[in-house]
Design brief:
Elements lengths: L15 H10 L10 H26 L6 H35 L2 E5 L6 E5 L2 H42 L1
Antiparallel strand pairs: 1-2
């Protein structure tokens, strides 16, 4: 007797478990799965390289030799925007996979946009997918939320410092 997983009509690349694995193995999205130190280094890497754009923009408004504090705060805020863009991209990718894993019905396309189908997951697939969400995907989304919160806190502190400069 065949298991219901093996008769899944959803194309391989559209199966939620394979979408999850592809995201987990991808160069960019896998950053969110790294240990704390490696993840922090990747975020710092984005922030540091963002200064290639942020530095000249901040210097045009606040020359470093005249207003070093404003230059640093403005440049740091602009560089942080690049981090926000990267984090939003990561967050949206992981939310998409979470939603596909969580839903009991999978929408898929057999050959193009015009022939969408739905497949109801059997109970064992629903259970497996929800376990993956609970123990693998949710911690990633929590980490990203904490990073967003930390960036918001840093931005607020920077605004407060700006007020006193």
């Amino acid at each position: 007797m065949e298991s219901s997983v093996s008769v899944c009509p959803v194309p391989f690349e559209q199966q939620p478990i394979n979408e999850y694995q592809e995201l987990k193995d991808s160069w960019f999205f896998s950053w969110a799965t790294l240990d704390g130190g490696s993840y922090s280094r990747k975020m710092a890497w984005i922030w540091g390289w963002s200064w290639l754009v942020a530095g000249p923009v901040a210097a045009a408004s606040f020359p470093p030799q005249k207003a070093l504090g404003q230059f640093m705060l403005c440049g740091g805020a602009i560089a942080s925007l690049f981090m926000v863009f990267a984090l939003v991209q990561m967050y949206l990718g992981w939310c998409y996979v979470r939603d596909r894993l969580t839903k009991p019905i999978v929408f898929y396309e057999e050959s193009g946009w015009y022939d969408g189908q739905c497949w109801s997951k059997p109970p064992e697939v629903i259970t497996r997918d929800r376990l993956i969400v609970t123990y693998q995907v949710q911690p990633i989304l929590q980490r990203l939320n904490k990073t967003f919160a930390l960036l918001a806190l840093i931005f607020c502190l920077g605004s407060l410092i700006w007020f006193f400069l």
